[in-house]
Every structure is written in structure tokens, then in C-alpha cells.
Write a structure and sequence with these properties.
Largest sheet: 7 strands, mixed
Strand content: 15-25%
Distance between the termini: 20 Å
Strand order of the largest sheet: 9-8-7-6-10-11-12
Number of helices: 17
Helix content: 40-55%
Mean pLDDT: 96
Radius of gyration: 21 Å
Number of strands: 12
């Protein structure tokens, strides 16, 4: 395999699909050496098959807003790879959703799910519907219209969507309500991230953020450090950032910055439990403003418009918002502000230039497919509970999440340890996930 040759073909075939091409290139560069040690992979054209999704569903979503006006959006489901299990991945509702974005996310999800040790394939879906400023009734009507088109493509042993950006517990509830009506069966395992009263798993809302901090703590311990006492900067204020802030605080860190699209809230004395709870209110408001936190807690927060979390002095940076949110310039600013560790919690949260800067300037770095895998891992645990018609306690779920994140870290160390003893977590995560999926594809024949 020659990465440059494959990427040249993909760029010619999919011009302009920048997020997807970026994700594929990062993985292929990491696995090229080990791939070429396996001639059986080359003979079966594993890479050429792996970089193409199994199928993509595209559909129109028509709904009526509160003014009685008919609105039309586009919905998608990218079923990327099912070599190790049924398709599994979130739904994203955001105005910037495109096929390229969802292909990148589905490709990343394939390897992330492989890292969890659970039998789950990779998928992603969503719509260019923008929830910002929409009423609760409008969101309900959109979710119902979206599921009207999606329901025949999913199932508990076929494809199990979950939440993602713009899709939380409320949206999952509306989506499932319509699915149940259409399918005429109470099959809670078809969606994850459900309410606790009807099949949801305890700790699922917190799981991505909690798992990210468990992984970060493992990384720091491996480097002879600890998160206790560290200043942490976080981007975003959705479920992921909320869980990360909550667990970071529990582990003794001080979250000193939370940002949104409008700017950053600096919190010199560290985020409080009341502020963490208020993040859920901010997310549910659909206003998409972090300034609301400064207005709610004027004595403890200082809001600066147009700035990012990376402008605040910190030890550890946790991008939790969106892909490519952290640029090389941001990485340089972080380094200047004393940051010595960055763990991606959002999917592909750092641009390639930022990753290269971190890796060549002594900043510990780990990629999203390893760091944020706790969310989909706990979704997998939710699927197991649904299939068994049981519900585990919070302590049981947390113990299993700990085990999974420890296992992911061990895989990264195993495949990412370099001759000089340093650990390339990007290479480690990519190779570990790739080898599991590639081996399964090989053993299942040319399909």
C-alpha cells in the first residue's frame, strides 16, 4: 500500500470532501508500515474496501414549523463498516452537516468502536437541520419526520443510532417514539442514549466526558503526572463538555475555561457544581451562548467575546466541541500559555498542523477515537442491558467503563510505543483499531 497513491485516487473521486479525506489520510499514514507487513491484506485490497462506506442513505425531511411554514432538510445515514458488529454511531443535527462530515465521522467511528473491545461496527448520520432557536415542538416534529424516513434502515442487530451534536436525550426520545409507532414493537435496543425510565443506561449522558478523563488520567500516569491540581480548559458546553467538567472536578482538577461559538468564560477559581449543572440548562435552551454562564454567575466568570478556551492559561486542554476546532495557531497559543497536554474529546478536534505542533513540541497528545470512546462504549453497554432486559447500577456501569478505557489506553501503548520509548497515541490508536477491523474483513472473505 502506498498512502499517496490511494489518497490521489480518493481526491479525484471525492473532490471537496475535505473532512473525510483528512480522516482517511491520518489513518493510512499511521498504518502504512504495519499494513505492508501483511501481504494478505494487500491481496484482499483491505484498505481500498475499508475507506469506502458500505452504503449511504440520503433522504428528504419535510416538517412544519410553529408558523405553519413547510420546511425541508436533508437527512443521511452512513453505514460505514460492519466487520466486527452491527453499525453503531450517532446522529448529528447541525447546519454544517454534509456527506463529507458524516463519512469522516463514520470512518473514525469504525476504529473507535473497534478499540472499545465491544462488537460494534461504524456508522454516522444526521441532518443539516439547525436546532438553534427552535422550539420544543419544532424539534419534536423534525425528529418525527426524520425517523419516518430512517426507521426501516435501522434495528437492534442491524444499525443502532445514538446522539451526537444537536441530539441529546430529548431528541432520542422523540425519535424513538416515532420508531415504536412505525415498527409496532417495543424494541428499546434500536437507539441508545435513552431516558432512564425506558431502557437507558445509568451514566450514559456522562459517559463520553467521564471516559475521556479516565483515559487522560491513564495517559498522565504513564507520563508520571496526575490531573489533580491541574488547570483545565474545555471547549463546548454540551453533554460531552459537561461530563468532562464534572469528572475533571471530581478528580481534583480546576476547570478554568469553558467556551462556545460566541466566546469564552474564564473561571479563575474553577468551575463549581452549580455551574456544571447550569451547562445542561444552556444546552437545552438552544441559544448556543456561553455568555449565559457569565450572566448567571457574574462574580465568578469573566466572558470575553470572540475568544477561545485556548486563550486562557491552562495545563490540560480538552477540545469537546467540533471537528477541526483547534488550529496550529491555537496550539501555539496553548503552549505559550503553559499547556503541556491536549486530549481530543471531540471527533478529530485538532487540525493536522496542531497535532504535528503538539507532537514536536513536547505536548502530550491523544486522538479523539481513543479519548472519547467511552460514550459509544457505554452505548454498547446499554445495548447489552436492553438485550438482557436488565439494568445495571451506576457503580457497575462505571466499573465497566473504567475497564474499557484502561483497555483502550493499553492498546494505544502497545501499538504506539516508539523505539526511543515515547508513545505516539495517534499511531497506537489507529493501528490497534485497524488491525482488528482488517483481520475481521479478511476472515469474512471478499464481500
Amino acid at each position: 500500500m502506498k498512502t499517496n497513491d490511494i489518497m490521489a485516487r480518493l481526491r479525484a473521486k471525492y473532490p471537496g470532501e475535505n473532512e473525510y479525506l483528512q480522516a482517511v489520510q491520518e489513518v493510512l499514514e499511521s498504518v502504512e508500515e504495519v499494513y505492508n507487513q501483511h501481504p494478505e491484506f494487500e491481496k484482499a485490497k483491505i484498505v481500498e474496501r475499508m475507506v469506502e462506506p458500505d452504503r449511504i442513505f440520503t433522504f428528504r425531511v419535510t416538517w412544519v414549523d410553529d408558523n405553519g411554514e413547510v420546511q425541508t432538510n436533508t437527512g443521511y445515514r452512513v453505514q460505514f463498516n460492519s466487520a466486527i458488529g452491527p453499525y453503531k454511531g450517532g446522529l448529528r443535527f447541525h447546519r454544517a452537516v454534509t456527506p463529507s462530515m458524516l463519512k469522516f465521522l463514520g470512518f473514525e467511528q469504525t476504529f473507535k468502536n473497534a478499540l472499545t473491545t465491544l462488537p460494534m461496527g461504524g456508522a454516522k448520520g444526521g441532518s443539516d437541520f439547525d436546532p438553534v432557536g427552535k422550539s420544543n415542538d419544532e424539534i419534536m416534529r423534525f425528529c418525527q419526520a426524520f425517523m419516518l424516513e430512517l426507521w426501516q434502515c435501522i434495528g437492534p442487530d442491524q444499525d443502532i443510532p445514538a446522539g451526537d451534536v444537536g441530539v441529546g436525550g430529548r431528541e432520542i426520545g422523540y425519535l424513538y417514539g416515532m420508531y415504536k409507532k412505525l415498527a409496532r414493537q417495543y424494541n428499546t435496543g434500536v437507539l441508545t442514549g435513552k431516558g432512564s425510565t425506558w431502557g437507558g443506561s445509568i451514566l450514559r449522558p456522562e459517559a463520553t466526558g467521564f471516559g475521556a478523563l479516565y483515559f487522560t488520567q491513564n495517559l498522565l500516569h504513564k507520563a508520571g503526572k496526575d490531573i489533580k491540581g491541574c488547570r483545565v480548559a474545555v471547549s463546548g458546553f454540551g453533554n460531552v463538555a459537561w461530563g468532562a467538567c464534572k469528572k475533571a472536578t471530581e478528580l481534583g482538577a480546576k476547570v478554568v475555561a469553558v467556551s462556545g461559538p460566541d466566546g469564552v468564560c474564564e473561571i479563575p477559581d474553577g468551575i463549581t457544581p452549580e455551574m456544571i449543572d447550569y451547562m445542561l440548562v444552556m444546552r437545552a435552551s438552544n441559544r448556543n451562548r456561553v455568555e449565559d454562564m457569565a450572566e448567571k454567575f457574574p462574580g465568578a466568570c469573566k466572558f470575553t467575546a470572540g475568544k477561545k478556551a485556548w486563550s486562557v492559561k491552562c495545563d490540560v486542554a480538552l477540545p469537546c466541541a467540533f471537528q477541526n476546532e483547534l488550529s496550529e495557531d491555537d496550539a501555539r497559543e496553548l503552549k505559550e500559555n503553559g499547556c503541556w497536554c491536549c486530549c481530543e474529546v471531540s471527533n478529530m478536534g485538532c487540525q493536522p498542523g496542531a497535532i504535528h505542533f503538539f507532537q514536536h513540541n513536547g505536548v502530550l497528545f491523544a486522538p479523539g477515537k481513543a479519548v472519547n470512546a467511552g460514550g459509544v462504549a457505554t452505548s454498547g453497554l446499554e445495548m447489552t442491558q436492553n438485550a438482557s432486559h436488565i439494568s445495571w447500577s451506576g457503580a457497575e456501569v462505571d466499573a465497566k467503563l473504567h475497564f474499557i478505557m484502561d483497555s483502550i489506553h493499553e492498546q494505544c501503548v502497545k501499538y504506539g510505543t516508539q523505539p526511543d520509548g515515547t508513545i505516539d497515541y495517534v499511531k497506537g490508536a489507529n493501528i490497534a483499531g485497524f488491525m482488528k477491523v482488517a483481520t475481521a474483513m479478511l476472515e469474512q472473505g471478499i464481500v
